[in-house]
Amino acid sequence: MFNVIPLLIVPVIAYAVIVIFSGGDPAAAAALMDNAIFSIPLVSGPWSMKVGDLLIILAMLMLFIELVKSAGTGTATIINHGLSMAVFVIAMALFLLVGRFGTSVFFLITMMALMDTVAGFVVTIVAARRDLAVGGE
After folding, report:
1. What 3-state class would DSSP assign to 21?
2. Is 2 among the domain residues?
3. If DSSP codes are grouped into helix, strand and coil, which group holds residue 27?
4. Number of H-type helices and E-type strands within the chain
């Protein structure tokens, strides 16, 4: 069941929840992504983790899991690829059409959804070709 659900929907929904409850204009959404969660003093200077950085890290983890899951060739994997494409199309539409989603953070999440879609199809095609070649011998 969980292999069917594309995990990159999690950062998209998290971004949407944060931005919708933040208020009105696109500038407020961009400013919210720049809010520091915590700061660590380093020799080179203080380093702070921002809300947008945390969402990008979450999206990168989800992308890694999705790439590992895409090695399968079953029906659930093919449904997952279709749903991943839907996540990408929705994220792209939100980025292009809704002002509060027009930030660098959401653009990077959208690009990760694109990478998930393309890599999923490519990995599945290569794995299926290998299975077909082994079965044909």
Report:
1. coil
2. no
3. helix
4. 5, 2
Q: Structure pTM?
A: 0.85
Contact partners, residue 68, CB within 8 Å, separation at least 6: none
Q: What is the pLDDT of residues 9-32, one digit of tens each?
A: 999 999 999 888 877 677 888 888
Locus of tokens 């749903």: 83
Question: What tokens appear for 40 in the block?
Answer: 């660590």
Cβ 69 vs Cβ 80: under 8 Å = yes
Task: Please check whether residue 4 lies inside any domain of the structure.
Answer: no
Quote the strand ranges of 12-83, DSSP E: 36-40, 47-50
Q: Is the pLDDT of residue 84 over 70?
A: yes
Question: What domain range includes position 40?
Answer: 9-136
Q: DSSP E strands: which ranges in the chain?
A: 36-40, 47-50
Question: What is the C-alpha separation between 72 and 48, in angstroms, rounded?
Answer: 38
- Rounded distance between C-alpha atoms, residue 50 and residue 68, angstroms: 28
Number of domains in the chain: 1
Average pLDDT over residues 95-114: 93
Q: Is residue 1 part of a domain?
A: no
Q: How far apart are CA 107 and CA 101, in angstroms?
A: 8
